Amino acid sequence: MKKVAILQSNYIPWKGYFDMIALVDEFILYDDMQYTRRDWRNRNKIKTPQGLAWLTVPVEVKGKYFQKINETIISEAKWAKDHWATIKQFYSKAKFFKDYKDVFENFYLSTQEQLLSNVNYELIKMTNEILGIKTKISRSSDYVLADGQTERLLDLVQQAGGTEYISGPAAKDYIVDSLFEDAGVKLTWMDYSGYTEYTQLYPPFEHGVTVLDLIFNEGPEAPKFMKYVK
Hints:
Shape: globular
Strand order of the largest sheet: 5-2-1-6-7
Radius of gyration: 18 Å
Strand content: 5-15%
Mean pLDDT: 96
Number of domains: 1
Number of strands: 7
Order of helices and strands: EHEEEHHHEHEHEH
């Protein structure tokens, strides 16, 4: 049995994204897909004393409505330094910030990566290492892509040797279940409910923020507040 999940890359995603990675044997970054504006591809939320705030990676999209995620270019060179200054401002008082400060600071102050997809990939890999997630990470560009929305997902799973596909619940709107059933591939829906609250700065508590919030506040105890990370 081999479990596979396929999701577009997100910028410093929330804890549920990493739970899905931990739940499967291979996680495929679906970055051959069209870049979508005002989405999670290039931004995520942090906690501040004034409430939730967005960290957004500036990208070039003007006149490129059909660009792929892995073709999306970062438009400002100083974005990373600005993001790190903001993260440090609002998380420096978190209990475990000092324990993980160096690894993230080194990335943000040294990266010269111009492609959004590569930035997301590097941050996902770094976070997996911190959380102890050993799942294989691949990219859809490593495979041949079939035509058709559900057909493409199924084919990716089969090329990866998967026998079970774990999907996010939002895909219920378009996935054709019968195609997986006919192919003998089990289709399972990810459940993001039931998370336990952890120590968090700036109440009220909010689950839907970047995983950095959990790491800086709970450190090595972070997996205890996730569902599938051991």
